[in-house]
Design brief:
The chain has 15 helices and 22 strands. By secondary structure, it is an alpha+beta fold. The radius of gyration is 25 Å and the shape is globular.
């Protein structure tokens, strides 16, 4: 066995603490993105045109989530992620294949050179299948658990990223419970649920008379969390004008209530969560770069349920036992066929949707053992949405066999293209005027136009 083979081999029949990987590079050598090159030191990456792909392409013949490269303990493997045009290696179309030190991958009209490096890195993999209230036996989740175990005893600021329903608040709660501040307050501040004009007061507090209705002094969320942890949920929704004040509070560990003259010193650990890509928001001018880096000292990405189906049996059994204990209904056991249906479904609402589905099933049926699902999962079907374009009706096809986020992103992208195409035609290509009419910042519009590759000339964009 060569040194390289020894580097890539991990014995998975014993508990693993570290997975030793080689860094590798992907480079587009043919196609619209020719010259694009990126190095990776991750166990798993996704390739496609979707904005959340690690290696994002613009080739229209490439699917939004086209392929995945992952290390499974034996080596790096490329897998088709359900793409329309498939993945080819030479003349062979493959569902999955292990990659040698150098190989050409063909996705649509794009050719990517995979090249394995010699520099190695160690990826921590937790032995346990849970951390606090979090459950998962997949390597993806055990990677997360390993990071959480290291971060929990510290006061480092953590940014938790992931789709809605993946359990971002549960991560924050589990980190707090595993750390030295566990006996102190854990305060949740939901940036998406508080009216914009009240957010500063709710976060930093106010003094009596600061504004109409301020009849007494009030402590804000940061003061309430003093000594403990403040969890800023959906921090991407924080208004731009408040972001410098939050940055100062993080840097100085002090706050000044609205209408007050004095700063109060606080001892608070900050955690934040978002279902947005904050780096994209920074480029669009909607989020301060300095605050992004301050919040993301440690960034933890939670994988969606559809990317870790092996965790569904563990999650389902846990939820069923929990539901049974709360409702008094005997805990049912799922048949093999039922469990396979749960594993095949995409779960656009992630863990939250899985739990709600099981709870409805238990309550309505009393048991699930050996029986068909009492609430049928949505079948893989298609429907149509009609929109008017100029004087013609156009049908947009929605494939319900695809993940919710992919379908939604596709519709949003198409809406943005049509909306701004017409708006630029109306303004004769004047971006500033178009931004004013749309009610958004010019930089945000410029970023959107680059993302959807829309020409700025009204004649070209119609």
């Amino acid at each position: 066995m060569s040194d390289l083979d020894q580097t890539l081999t991990v014995h998975l029949d014993v508990p693993v603490d570290y997975l030793t990987l080689c860094k590798y590079t992907l480079k587009v050598i043919e196609g619209p993105d020719k010259g694009l090159e990126k190095s990776f030191e991750r166990r798993q990456i996704d390739i496609g045109t979707a904005p959340d792909c690690h290696f994002m392409l613009s080739d229209p013949t490439v699917s939004r989530n086209h392929a995945r490269i992952e290390h499974d303990g034996q080596g790096y493997k490329v897998s088709d992620a359900g793409s329309k045009n498939g993945v080819r290696i030479g003349d062979l179309k493959v569902l999955s294949a292990y990659l040698p030190g150098e190989e050409r991958l063909i996705l649509g009209e794009t050719v990517i050179l995979f090249r394995l490096g010699t520099e190695t890195i160690d990826i921590s993999i937790a032995r346990e299948t849970r951390f606090g209230k979090l459950l998962g036996k997949s390597v993806e989740m055990r990677e997360v658990f390993a990071i959480l175990k290291r971060v929990a005893p510290t006061d480092v600021t953590v940014l938790i990223e992931g789709e809605s329903g993946t359990g971002k608040e549960v991560v924050a709660e589990s980190l707090h419970a595993a750390g030295p501040r566990r006996a102190k307050p854990f305060v949740v501040f939901d940036c998406s649920a508080i009216p914009r004009d009240l957010m500063e007061s709710e976060l930093f507090g106010h003094v009596r008379g600061a504004f109409t209705g301020a009849v007494r002094d009030r402590s804000g969320a940061m003061a309430e969390a003093n000594g403990g942890t403040l969890f800023l949920d959906e921090v991407g929704e924080l208004p731009l004008e408040l972001q410098p004040k939050l940055l100062r509070a993080l840097e100085k560990r002090e706050v000044k209530p609205v209408g007050g003259n004095r700063h109060a010193t606080l001892d608070v650990r900050i955690m934040a969560a978002t279902n947005r890509r904050l780096d994209d928001e920074v480029r669009a001018g909607n989020f301060r770069e300095d605050l992004f880096w301050r919040l993301g000292v440690i960034r933890i990405g939670l994988p969606p349920v559809r990317k870790r189906p092996e965790d569904i049996p563990l999650l389902a059994d846990h939820f069923l036992a929990e539901i049974a204990g709360r409702t008094g209904v005997p805990a049912p056991r799922l048949s093999y066929d039922t469990m396979e249906k749960l594993k095949e479904y995409a779960w656009p609402g992630n863990v939250r949707e899985l739990r709600n589905f099981l709870e409805r099933s238990v309550i309505l049926s009393g048991a699930l053992s050996g029986a068909p699902l009492p609430l049928d999962l949505p079948p893989p079907t298609q429907t149509s949405l009609r929109r008017d374009q100029d004087d013609q009706d156009e049908v947009l096809r929605v494939n319900f066999d695809e993940p919710f986020k992919d379908v939604k992103d596709g519709l949003v992208s198409e809406f943005e293209r049509r909306y701004f195409s017409r708006l630029l035609k109306r303004t004769e290509g004047n971006v500033s005027k178009a931004a004013r009419l749309a009610g958004i910042h010019r930089k945000s519009l410029e970023y959107l136009l680059r993302q959807i590759d829309l020409p700025r000339s009204g004649n070209e964009g119609g």
